[in-house]
Amino acid sequence: MPRLAILTSGGDSPGTNAAIESAVRHADRLGLQTLGVRSGFAGLAEGELETLTPAQVDGISARGGTVLGTSRDRTVGDRSGRDRILQVISREGIDGVIVLGGDGSIRHGATALEAMGVTCAAIPCTIDNDVPGTDRTLGFDTACNRAIALADAIRDTAQALPGRMFVLETLGGNTGFIALAVAEAVHADLVLLPEYPLDLDYGARRMRAAVARQGYALAVASEGAGDVPSMASYLAEAAGHRVRLTSIGHAQRGGAPSFLDRWLAERFAAAAVSHLGRDQGGSASPGSVDAATRSSVGVVAVCRGYDVGLAPLAEVIGGHKQPDHGVFQALNGLAVQP
């Protein structure tokens, strides 16, 4: 029976378990066997594999984290590690590898597999939404919903006891996709992102004006924008109002995935498994797949609008993705959004 391996690399994100369950179920329907890899690429190099069946993964879609465990181990980056991975793949008769991970795992891990001649399909799993070539990554929607719920709760108390400013700090690493999406959804008065520096004196004036207009001010800041606690203190002093900082922290990465992330996990997994199973008699991949993608050793599942398909790995890692500058300007009162 043809065999696929599936592993998680890098940070966890909501929907990763949903992708694992969907991949196992889809592979089973195609007559493929799925091997779960413990602890990412390090586990693959050590041969830490177990057979996964639909019964074993039943219901894990509702859980955050990853049942396979993950790591940021650099095993796949050195020659010794790659040699051990190839030995395991050959010994176990693995026909393809599914990599669940973010930009770094795709850029370094999946590309290393491709360079080794291993057929692989990456599923972009990261709350940061920073993988080029796809509008959404798995976990982004859930992470945004967590922050939106907190922003709504902050507004309740802000309206009840006016005269204060609030700063909500999101995760996102050195990217601002989460913060910008949340700020737009909750009509924040200010948004601070790492990609686009903003003068804090201007920000303080904008926050002060918001307090005068509506009784409170709400800013959303990405953790990568700088020292957010210090920035919040500066805004308070410059604006002349007390500030309250709420930092979400790693709670934003955990918990049950949203409907959209479960929907995306199902379609990403189906595309990846179908592609890897093609040479083993599997059905064609869902979505639009051109000849270049079909012939690629490495592919990435991508979502453009609500269309899910596959793109060559080289095309994805060669791209560049930035938060919408026009939305950033509009939210900060720097331009009128068309």
Describe the fold and architecture.
The chain has 338 residues and is an alpha/beta fold. It has 13 helices and 11 strands. The chain has helices spanning 16-29, 40-46, 54-57, 79-92, 103-115, 140-160, 177-186, 200-214, 228-239, 259-277, 291-294, 313-317, 325-331; strands at residues 3-8, 33-37, 49-52, 94-101, 120-124, 164-170, 190-192, 216-222, 243-247, 298-304, 307-312. A 7-stranded mixed β-sheet has the order 3-2-1-4-5-10-11, sandwiched between helices. Strands 7-8-6-9 form a 4-stranded parallel β-sheet, sandwiched between helices. Residues 281-288 have low confidence and may be disordered.
Highlighted features:
338 residues, alpha/beta, Rossmann fold, 2 domains, seven-stranded mixed sheet, four-stranded parallel sheet, 11 strands
